[in-house]
Write a structure and sequence with these properties.
The protein is an alpha/beta fold. The protein is built from 10 helices and 13 strands.
Protein backbone atom coordinates (compact mmCIF):
# COMPACT_ATOMS: atom_id res chain seq x y z
CA UNK A 1 0.00 0.00 0.00
CA UNK A 2 1.31 3.49 -0.86
CA UNK A 3 2.26 5.98 1.84
CA UNK A 4 -0.34 8.33 3.24
CA UNK A 5 0.86 11.89 2.76
CA UNK A 6 -0.13 15.16 4.41
CA UNK A 7 0.62 18.35 2.44
CA UNK A 8 0.45 21.81 3.97
CA UNK A 9 0.16 24.86 1.74
CA UNK A 10 -1.32 22.96 -1.18
CA UNK A 11 -3.08 26.07 -2.51
CA UNK A 12 0.15 28.09 -2.58
CA UNK A 13 2.85 28.59 -5.20
CA UNK A 14 5.21 25.76 -4.27
CA UNK A 15 2.62 23.61 -2.50
CA UNK A 16 0.40 23.66 -5.56
CA UNK A 17 3.21 22.22 -7.66
CA UNK A 18 3.88 19.61 -4.97
CA UNK A 19 0.23 18.54 -5.22
CA UNK A 20 0.60 18.38 -9.02
CA UNK A 21 3.74 16.28 -8.68
CA UNK A 22 1.90 13.86 -6.39
CA UNK A 23 -0.96 13.65 -8.88
CA UNK A 24 1.44 12.92 -11.75
CA UNK A 25 3.83 10.59 -9.94
CA UNK A 26 1.73 7.47 -10.23
CA UNK A 27 3.28 6.18 -7.01
CA UNK A 28 0.72 7.74 -4.68
CA UNK A 29 -3.00 7.02 -4.79
CA UNK A 30 -4.91 10.35 -4.69
CA UNK A 31 -7.14 9.06 -1.93
CA UNK A 32 -4.07 8.69 0.27
CA UNK A 33 -3.25 12.41 0.06
CA UNK A 34 -4.51 14.73 2.80
CA UNK A 35 -4.36 18.48 2.21
CA UNK A 36 -4.19 20.83 5.19
CA UNK A 37 -5.65 24.18 4.13
CA UNK A 38 -6.55 27.27 6.11
CA UNK A 39 -9.07 28.14 3.41
CA UNK A 40 -10.12 25.12 1.31
CA UNK A 41 -11.94 27.45 -1.09
CA UNK A 42 -8.55 28.67 -2.36
CA UNK A 43 -7.70 25.26 -3.81
CA UNK A 44 -8.29 25.42 -7.59
CA UNK A 45 -11.10 23.17 -8.82
CA UNK A 46 -9.74 19.80 -9.86
CA UNK A 47 -6.29 20.47 -8.38
CA UNK A 48 -6.39 17.37 -6.20
CA UNK A 49 -9.26 15.09 -7.16
CA UNK A 50 -10.07 12.42 -4.56
CA UNK A 51 -7.69 13.96 -2.02
CA UNK A 52 -8.92 14.48 1.53
CA UNK A 53 -9.10 18.20 2.30
CA UNK A 54 -9.10 19.30 5.94
CA UNK A 55 -9.40 22.79 7.35
CA UNK A 56 -6.71 23.79 9.87
CA UNK A 57 -4.53 26.81 10.56
CA UNK A 58 -0.87 26.80 11.54
CA UNK A 59 -1.55 29.97 13.52
CA UNK A 60 -4.00 27.96 15.67
CA UNK A 61 -2.13 24.94 17.11
CA UNK A 62 -5.33 23.48 18.56
CA UNK A 63 -6.70 23.08 15.03
CA UNK A 64 -3.81 20.72 14.21
CA UNK A 65 -4.87 18.07 16.71
CA UNK A 66 -5.26 14.74 14.91
CA UNK A 67 -4.17 16.16 11.57
CA UNK A 68 -1.33 13.63 11.28
CA UNK A 69 -3.22 10.54 12.43
CA UNK A 70 -2.62 7.72 9.97
CA UNK A 71 -0.04 9.77 8.04
CA UNK A 72 3.37 8.40 6.99
CA UNK A 73 4.91 11.53 5.46
CA UNK A 74 4.38 15.26 6.00
CA UNK A 75 5.30 17.62 3.15
CA UNK A 76 5.29 21.02 4.84
CA UNK A 77 5.07 23.69 2.14
CA UNK A 78 3.14 26.39 3.99
CA UNK A 79 4.91 29.57 5.07
CA UNK A 80 3.84 33.11 5.86
CA UNK A 81 5.86 35.39 3.56
CA UNK A 82 5.93 39.05 4.52
CA UNK A 83 3.58 40.65 6.97
CA UNK A 84 4.41 41.75 10.50
CA UNK A 85 6.89 39.92 12.68
CA UNK A 86 4.25 38.56 15.03
CA UNK A 87 2.24 36.89 12.25
CA UNK A 88 5.28 35.34 10.57
CA UNK A 89 6.48 34.00 13.91
CA UNK A 90 3.01 32.63 14.71
CA UNK A 91 2.73 30.67 11.45
CA UNK A 92 6.29 29.76 10.54
CA UNK A 93 7.90 29.25 13.94
CA UNK A 94 5.13 28.31 16.38
CA UNK A 95 2.94 26.67 13.73
CA UNK A 96 5.75 24.46 12.48
CA UNK A 97 6.67 23.49 16.03
CA UNK A 98 3.07 22.44 16.69
CA UNK A 99 2.92 20.52 13.40
CA UNK A 100 6.18 18.68 14.13
CA UNK A 101 4.99 17.83 17.64
CA UNK A 102 1.72 16.48 16.22
CA UNK A 103 3.67 14.46 13.62
CA UNK A 104 5.81 12.95 16.38
CA UNK A 105 2.74 12.11 18.47
CA UNK A 106 1.14 10.37 15.47
CA UNK A 107 4.29 8.41 14.60
CA UNK A 108 4.90 10.06 11.22
CA UNK A 109 7.99 8.59 9.57
CA UNK A 110 9.31 11.69 7.78
CA UNK A 111 8.73 15.44 7.75
CA UNK A 112 9.99 17.48 4.78
CA UNK A 113 10.00 21.26 5.14
CA UNK A 114 10.36 23.62 2.17
CA UNK A 115 12.44 26.48 3.49
CA UNK A 116 14.60 29.05 1.67
CA UNK A 117 18.26 29.93 1.19
CA UNK A 118 17.29 33.37 2.54
CA UNK A 119 17.92 31.92 6.01
CA UNK A 120 21.63 32.54 5.29
CA UNK A 121 21.23 36.31 5.00
CA UNK A 122 22.60 38.70 2.40
CA UNK A 123 25.75 37.02 1.06
CA UNK A 124 27.96 36.80 -0.89
CA UNK A 125 27.74 33.00 -1.08
CA UNK A 126 29.89 31.32 -3.71
CA UNK A 127 29.40 27.62 -4.41
CA UNK A 128 28.45 27.11 -0.78
CA UNK A 129 27.41 23.55 0.16
CA UNK A 130 24.75 22.94 2.83
CA UNK A 131 26.17 22.42 6.28
CA UNK A 132 28.98 24.93 5.76
CA UNK A 133 26.98 28.13 6.17
CA UNK A 134 25.44 29.10 9.51
CA UNK A 135 21.96 30.63 9.29
CA UNK A 136 22.08 34.42 9.65
CA UNK A 137 18.57 35.55 8.64
CA UNK A 138 18.18 39.27 8.02
CA UNK A 139 14.38 39.71 8.00
CA UNK A 140 11.49 38.71 10.27
CA UNK A 141 10.24 36.24 7.67
CA UNK A 142 13.64 34.60 7.30
CA UNK A 143 14.16 34.48 11.06
CA UNK A 144 10.85 32.71 11.55
CA UNK A 145 11.64 30.24 8.76
CA UNK A 146 15.05 29.52 10.27
CA UNK A 147 13.26 28.79 13.54
CA UNK A 148 10.87 26.48 11.67
CA UNK A 149 13.86 24.66 10.20
CA UNK A 150 15.26 24.04 13.66
CA UNK A 151 12.04 22.35 14.81
CA UNK A 152 12.16 20.04 11.77
CA UNK A 153 15.88 19.30 11.99
CA UNK A 154 15.75 18.63 15.74
CA UNK A 155 13.06 16.02 15.03
CA UNK A 156 15.25 14.30 12.41
CA UNK A 157 13.39 15.77 9.44
CA UNK A 158 14.44 17.02 6.01
CA UNK A 159 14.86 20.71 5.11
CA UNK A 160 15.05 21.87 1.49
CA UNK A 161 16.53 25.30 0.74
CA UNK A 162 15.85 26.62 -2.77
CA UNK A 163 16.96 30.13 -3.70
CA UNK A 164 15.16 31.78 -6.64
CA UNK A 165 12.08 29.70 -7.48
CA UNK A 166 10.70 30.43 -10.94
CA UNK A 167 7.67 29.36 -12.94
CA UNK A 168 3.91 29.60 -13.14
CA UNK A 169 2.61 31.14 -9.94
CA UNK A 170 5.78 33.14 -9.15
CA UNK A 171 4.77 36.63 -8.06
CA UNK A 172 8.08 37.56 -6.46
CA UNK A 173 11.23 36.73 -8.42
CA UNK A 174 10.62 37.44 -12.10
CA UNK A 175 8.06 40.20 -11.38
CA UNK A 176 10.66 41.77 -9.08
CA UNK A 177 13.33 41.62 -11.78
CA UNK A 178 10.89 43.12 -14.28
CA UNK A 179 10.07 45.94 -11.86
CA UNK A 180 13.77 46.67 -11.35
CA UNK A 181 14.32 46.81 -15.12
CA UNK A 182 11.38 49.18 -15.42
CA UNK A 183 12.89 51.57 -12.89
CA UNK A 184 16.35 51.38 -14.45
CA UNK A 185 15.09 51.52 -18.07
CA UNK A 186 18.29 49.61 -18.81
CA UNK A 187 20.00 46.32 -18.14
CA UNK A 188 23.23 45.69 -16.25
CA UNK A 189 26.51 45.19 -18.01
CA UNK A 190 29.32 42.94 -16.86
CA UNK A 191 27.56 41.96 -13.64
CA UNK A 192 28.83 38.42 -13.19
CA UNK A 193 27.50 37.72 -9.69
CA UNK A 194 25.97 34.24 -9.82
CA UNK A 195 22.57 33.15 -8.56
CA UNK A 196 20.96 29.77 -7.98
CA UNK A 197 17.57 29.19 -9.58
CA UNK A 198 15.12 26.30 -9.74
CA UNK A 199 12.01 25.50 -11.77
CA UNK A 200 9.05 25.23 -9.40
CA UNK A 201 7.90 22.08 -11.22
CA UNK A 202 11.25 20.39 -10.53
CA UNK A 203 11.09 21.62 -6.94
CA UNK A 204 7.63 20.07 -6.57
CA UNK A 205 8.97 16.73 -7.80
CA UNK A 206 11.95 17.04 -5.47
CA UNK A 207 9.73 17.60 -2.43
CA UNK A 208 7.70 14.49 -3.24
CA UNK A 209 10.83 12.43 -3.88
CA UNK A 210 12.36 13.58 -0.58
CA UNK A 211 9.24 12.45 1.23
CA UNK A 212 9.11 9.03 -0.39
CA UNK A 213 12.82 8.21 -0.75
CA UNK A 214 14.14 5.20 1.09
CA UNK A 215 17.44 7.03 1.67
CA UNK A 216 18.28 8.71 4.95
CA UNK A 217 17.95 12.37 3.96
CA UNK A 218 17.81 13.90 7.43
CA UNK A 219 19.35 17.37 7.41
CA UNK A 220 19.36 20.41 5.14
CA UNK A 221 19.81 20.32 1.36
CA UNK A 222 20.18 22.94 -1.37
CA UNK A 223 17.64 22.34 -4.12
CA UNK A 224 18.58 24.44 -7.14
CA UNK A 225 19.60 23.87 -10.73
CA UNK A 226 23.29 22.83 -10.77
CA UNK A 227 24.22 25.74 -13.07
CA UNK A 228 23.95 29.22 -11.53
CA UNK A 229 23.05 32.24 -13.67
CA UNK A 230 24.86 35.58 -13.60
CA UNK A 231 22.96 38.79 -12.96
CA UNK A 232 23.40 40.27 -16.43
CA UNK A 233 22.02 37.09 -18.01
CA UNK A 234 19.11 37.04 -15.54
CA UNK A 235 18.04 40.55 -16.48
CA UNK A 236 18.74 40.28 -20.21
CA UNK A 237 16.76 37.04 -20.43
CA UNK A 238 13.82 38.45 -18.49
CA UNK A 239 13.75 41.53 -20.71
CA UNK A 240 14.06 39.50 -23.90
CA UNK A 241 11.57 36.73 -23.10
CA UNK A 242 8.96 39.11 -21.70
CA UNK A 243 9.44 41.83 -24.32
CA UNK A 244 10.32 44.57 -21.83
CA UNK A 245 11.52 47.83 -23.41
CA UNK A 246 14.96 48.99 -22.25
CA UNK A 247 15.59 52.30 -24.00
CA UNK A 248 18.71 53.20 -22.04
CA UNK A 249 22.26 51.94 -22.50
CA UNK A 250 23.35 49.12 -20.18
CA UNK A 251 24.62 50.32 -16.80
CA UNK A 252 27.36 49.08 -14.54
CA UNK A 253 26.55 48.53 -10.88
CA UNK A 254 27.73 51.95 -9.71
CA UNK A 255 25.72 53.72 -12.44
CA UNK A 256 22.67 51.64 -11.51
CA UNK A 257 23.04 52.56 -7.84
CA UNK A 258 23.20 56.25 -8.73
CA UNK A 259 20.06 55.97 -10.87
CA UNK A 260 18.20 54.27 -8.00
CA UNK A 261 19.19 56.82 -5.36
CA UNK A 262 16.30 57.45 -2.98
CA UNK A 263 14.53 54.19 -3.89
CA UNK A 264 15.44 51.82 -1.03
CA UNK A 265 13.41 48.83 -2.25
CA UNK A 266 15.00 48.90 -5.71
CA UNK A 267 18.44 49.42 -4.15
CA UNK A 268 17.84 46.37 -1.95
CA UNK A 269 17.10 44.22 -5.01
CA UNK A 270 20.12 45.60 -6.83
CA UNK A 271 22.31 44.88 -3.83
CA UNK A 272 21.21 41.26 -3.88
CA UNK A 273 22.01 40.99 -7.59
CA UNK A 274 25.45 42.55 -7.14
CA UNK A 275 26.91 39.63 -5.13
CA UNK A 276 26.96 35.84 -5.47
CA UNK A 277 24.01 33.86 -4.13
CA UNK A 278 25.17 30.53 -5.50
CA UNK A 279 24.36 27.49 -3.37
CA UNK A 280 26.04 24.24 -4.35
CA UNK A 281 24.21 20.93 -4.51
CA UNK A 282 25.22 18.08 -2.20
CA UNK A 283 24.15 15.35 -4.62
CA UNK A 284 20.51 15.72 -3.64
CA UNK A 285 19.04 15.50 -7.16
CA UNK A 286 20.97 12.37 -8.03
CA UNK A 287 20.22 10.84 -4.67
CA UNK A 288 16.45 11.12 -5.04
CA UNK A 289 16.43 10.42 -8.78
CA UNK A 290 14.88 13.71 -9.91
CA UNK A 291 15.84 15.81 -12.96
CA UNK A 292 16.52 19.42 -11.87
CA UNK A 293 14.90 20.69 -15.07
CA UNK A 294 16.00 23.01 -17.83
CA UNK A 295 18.52 25.83 -17.57
CA UNK A 296 17.33 29.36 -16.90
CA UNK A 297 16.82 30.61 -20.46
CA UNK A 298 14.82 27.56 -21.53
CA UNK A 299 12.87 27.58 -18.28
CA UNK A 300 11.85 31.20 -18.68
CA UNK A 301 10.82 30.61 -22.29
CA UNK A 302 8.43 27.88 -21.13
CA UNK A 303 6.82 30.08 -18.50
CA UNK A 304 6.97 33.38 -20.42
CA UNK A 305 3.30 33.38 -21.54
CA UNK A 306 2.14 33.14 -17.92
CA UNK A 307 4.52 35.91 -16.81
CA UNK A 308 3.48 38.20 -19.68
CA UNK A 309 -0.18 37.75 -18.77
CA UNK A 310 0.61 38.51 -15.11
CA UNK A 311 2.57 41.66 -15.92
CA UNK A 312 -0.04 42.90 -18.37
CA UNK A 313 -2.91 42.28 -15.96
Amino acid sequence: MSSRILVTGGSGFIGGHVVAALRESGGVTPSRVRLLLRDPARLPAGAAPAAEVVRADLADPESLRGICDGVDVVLHCASRIGGDERSTESVNDHGTRALVEEAARAGVGRVVYVSTAAVYGRGPFTGAPPGKLPPAPASPTSRSRAAAERHVLDAGGVVLRPHLVLGTGDRWVVPGLAALLGVLSASLKECVARHSVVDVRALGRAVVAAGLSERDLAGAHHVNHPEPVDSSELLDTVAGRLGLPLPGAALDIDEARARLAGQPRALHHLGMLAVDHWFADDGFWTGVGVDPGAGFAELLAEHAPWYRELLEG
